[in-house]
Structures are given as C-alpha cells and as structure tokens.
Amino acid sequence: MNQTFTIYSLFFLVTALVSFFGAFLAWHRRRVKGALEITWLMIASGIGAFCVIFETSAPTMAEKIFWAKMEFTGGSFTPVLYLIFVLRFTGKERFLSLKNIILLFIMPLTTLVVVLTNDYHNLMWSGFSPISPKTNLMEYYHGIWFWIGYLAYSYLMLIIATVSIFSFIFHHKNSFQYHGWIILLGGLVPWSASLFYLTGINVTPGLDLAPASITLSGLLLIYAIFHNRFLDLVPVARETLFETLQDGIIALDEHNRILDINKSAMTYLGIKNKSILGLFAEESGVTVPLLLKAVITVNNNDQIEVPVGTELKTFQLITQAIKNQSGSRIIVIRDISYNVSQQKELIKAKEKAEESDRLKSAFLANISHEIRTPMNGILGFTELLRELKLSEDEQQEYLAIIEKSGTRMLNIINDIISLSSLEAGLSKVKITNFDINDQMGIIFNLYEPQALEKGIKLIICDNIPTEEAKIISDKEKIKEILSNLIKNAIKFTATGSIEIGFSKNSDGLEFFVKDTGIGINPEQKELIFERFRQGSESVARYYEGAGLGLSISKAYVLLLGGRIWVESEEGKGSTFYFTIPC
Q1: CATH fold label, 342-427
Q2: What whole-number distance in Å separates Cα of residue 558 and Cα of residue 531?
Q3: pLDDT number for residue 348
Q4: 512-533: per-residue pLDDT in tens?
C-alpha cells in the first residue's frame, strides 16, 4: 500500500540513524564498563524510532496502529536500559544481579504483551482520533495500563537514574561530573518531550516528540564519545580495582589524565584529594613529584629510589598498555623497599661472612707463625743446652730465651682460651671489692721492667684519694684489659714514654693508656677492636702478636658495662680510653 512520507517521517529517520550510529560507536567500546548497556539502549531507541517512520507515513488507521504497536518493541525497554546503564556507569553494580535485572524487565515485557493484545481489552489505548489530512497523524486515547503500567513505571526508572546521576555528580566534582551532566541531559530530553506530548502542548496534534528527541540525546552521546573520550573514562573502576592491594594501580590516557587510581597509588603519590579522576596527573595534588615523573615517563619494570619523608623508598613500576585505547596505559606501583633492604642485608652478610672467613684464614696463618717462632726457639735452644762445653753465661742466656719463648707461647694460648670463652659465652663477671690504687700499682710494677728494657719510661699518674679507691667490679678483667693495652703500647713504642692512669666521674672510672708510639691510621681505628683484625695482617709484618688483645679487651669492657675507644695520630702516638661503671 502507498506510504505518505512527511517531514515527520524524515525526523524519525534521522532519529533512527543517529541511534544506530551511537550503538555502533558504543559497541566498539563494549569492553568498557557501561558500553554494552548504552549499545542496547541506542538499539532499542533506534528500533522505536524506525517504527515511527512507518507509523507517520501509513495511510490507514489499521497500519498506524500496527506500527505504533511495533514501536513498543523497542520503546518499552528504553527506560530500563537507561537505568541499567546509569547504575553501571556510576558504580552501583551491586544492584544489577541477574535476579534484579529480570525483575526490572517484567513490566516492559508485560507492557509489550498488553500493547500487542490491546484489541481485546483496550488497556493501552481506549480509542483513536481520525487521521488528519494535513499531517497524516492521529491521536491516541490512552487506557489505564498506559498510565500505570507504562508511564508511571518509566518515570520511576527515570527518577532512580536521575538520583544516581546527581549523586555521581556530587561525589565527582572537578573530575567526571561533566560526563554525568551529559548522561543526565541525554536521559531527560526524551522524557521532557514526552511531557509535552501528554499535556497537549505539542505544536502538531498527535505528534509524539519523545522518539524525535532521541536524536538530540544521540548527538550528545556521539559528541561525548568523539571529543571527550566518553566510555573510555571509567570513573567507577576504583570500586572494583583491587582497593585492598598493596600495589598502587593508576590508569592514564595519552594526555596523562587520570582514568582510574586505587588507594595505594594515592598513598604512594601523596594525593589527598579524592576527586581527581579526569584531572591531569600533574594537577592532582601529588606531593611526591619524583615518583609521578617516573610513573609518567619510565619504561616497564624500571626501579626508582624516591625520598618519602625521612625514608628512601624503592619502587618498581610495571606498565601495560590498555587495549584499543591508543596511548592509554595502566601503571602498577610496587613498593619493593623491604625486598631491596633485605637484598642489601644479604649482600652485607655475605660480604661479612667472606671477610670473616678471610680474616680467620689470616688469623690461623698468623697463629701458626706465632706459635712456630717461640716453639722453634724453645726446641732449638734446648738442643743447644745438650752441649757439654757451654759456659754458665751461655746456659743462662739460652734459658732466658727459652723462658721468653715459653712466656710468649703461654700468652698466645691464654688469649685463645679467653677468646674461646667469650665466643662460647662462658666468660662471666666476678664482682669483688678491691682497692683500685693497689691494683694499678701492681700492674705498673709488672710492666715497668719491660718498658725499661726497651728504653721507654712507664709513668703512672696520680691516684685517687684512698677513701674513694675502694670499688666493686671484676678485678681480674680490669687487670687483663690494662695489661693488653700496656703490652700493646710497649710493643708499638720505640722511644718516649707510656702513661697510665684513671679518674673518677659520675659514670664510674675512666682509664687511659697513652703512648708515643707509631700511632694508628684513621681508617683502622675501629677495625683494630674487631676479632682477628690487626693493623697489619701480613705474616711477614715487623711486630709480633696474634692480634687478639684489643678484641678481648673490648669484649671485657662491654661485659662490665663500659665502652672503649682510641684517639691517635699516625707517627705521634695513641691514647686508649675505657670506662668501667662501679
């Protein structure tokens, strides 16, 4: 039958084409949250508008009613599809369970059944006006289901969607609120046109502007898709984007606008403002700019050290391009400071173990040398004593050498035993009450002959008053500490003097041993107190000794609750200090 196409038919043709084109664009972004729903929304709107083309051009009432019924195959579902799209876009997906979606579609399906069977009950349309010869349009008189089952339900969907959009706009100030306004306007335009139709304000009787107004909605969405990357920006991903992960996750577009970001990334970047989606990363209030610069510019799997407050943190940055979105990418910010610290500690431990192994090897070589030398002296001169023609002076000289070698070996053995006891934790503090002045005198008398033998003057400084000389501490360990320090001073002093003494202060006693010997290299001041360490670790060095005296002295000082240190200038001498609480 001949169709009478009018200007109204052209309007609805444009409406249908715009809707289908909008559906085509949204379909190409169907992997983005909300894109699939808007695709179905635009298809449903396009189907409704396409049917209106034939309704406005149909020449008979029966054909117009037929196409009006067909219009509802798409139009009855648009309110629900619009609501689903809004809920998906605004992050209220918890309401979109399969059960709830089925419940939402019950009313539109019922409306479609009522429309198709209207001839039997007139619940949708109760009557029709004659076709206007000027416009080829006719008016529909609506039944009770139109007002209650279709219109009221549609506006309920619109109200819920509008509230959701307003809430979204309020919570996304300065970021994605622009897109919220586009969605709100695109949804309100058709329903506003519907109000004009229902209230009879239409310029042309019988013309339902609601399908035609979808053209404007479609144009709004197409503009947003092309010029504002609508549907490329997913503002609600934070609701589902691993908020509990320790790794920071940030999504940027090709212009470095923030598409999405989780709480960890905000913490790492020092962002306090929660409404930053859609902003350029540089304008998001970042307080750790070095990390942001790395996030924007670095390659995949790069590491960067960034000062955060008083700490130096290490981050690993993993970059992954977003499929079908040129220039957009997701960056994972992983705090690996602990792992790096552990790795450094392991490297230090390994180096320390290797150094300890090297030092022990050097120590064993040194001990072998130190034991072999006096042992050779003892065995050699014992053999010489077998000679029958030795004079008494020669015998005494050989016996003195044997005695000296034996004493040297005994000292080495005593040091080894002391060190072993310390290593095993068997060395205990034995507290007694004694006169420190007397103890200093004994030590002085013990080592003065050795000093004089080398031409060195051993000096003891003034003692403290007798009434203050009684102290409670470990007499033997204090003697051992002073003995080791004095022996060292005698060993490394060729000329000059050695002073020993102590003073009393609020913390206890502070002892010193001062010499005019060779002094200590600044780099070795701390090393000399370590076990198995000496100023020279070569077997062929000039000075004898196993290098255990200072480490044993330090261990004893620590056992007694004090501390030990040295002040020295190379070539001018050294002064060793240690404190003992008493």
Answers
A1: Helix Hairpins (1.10.287)
A2: 14
A3: 83
A4: 999 999 888 877 776 777 765 5
